[in-house]
Amino acid sequence: MRPVEQAGKAVAELGQNIGDYIRQQRRNAQISLRQLARLAGVSNPYLSQIERGLRRPSAEILQQIAKGLRISAEALYVQAGILEQRAGGPVVDAVLADPDLTERQKQVLLDVYQSFRRENAASSTEPGEPTGAPPSAEPASPARGRATDEE
Hints:
Layout: H1 3-28, H2 33-40, H3 44-51, H4 59-69, H5 73-80, H6 89-97, H7 103-125, H8 142-150
Helix pairs in contact: 2-3, 2-4, 4-5
């Protein structure tokens, strides 16, 4: 395959990936295609073409779609290949930006966060391991369960 054909195929795959991601986020939010199109200020056919990978939306359209989905535009930009994934991510950024935390508190929070991420990554790579909470974990109280649902 010639370099020009490879580049064209890569762009088409990026369009498909962003379309799949938008469709998944729309379904997770339980929003119809028409509702999202209206919220984002785009036409139904255009949004449908984006979801099917036939069109590659501009950064401005992605921002409008993100607003309609109530997700970060950055997440869509990363999926579309406009931005590169940041190492820290939004959790790290939020902790570091909080003016009410001391530097020591920030570091402790980030250490705990990273340990949870490492633990989850390790458990997802071990074959035969159940996903979810470890057997020794206490069941969530009803109050804690409700708080999780609201987040």
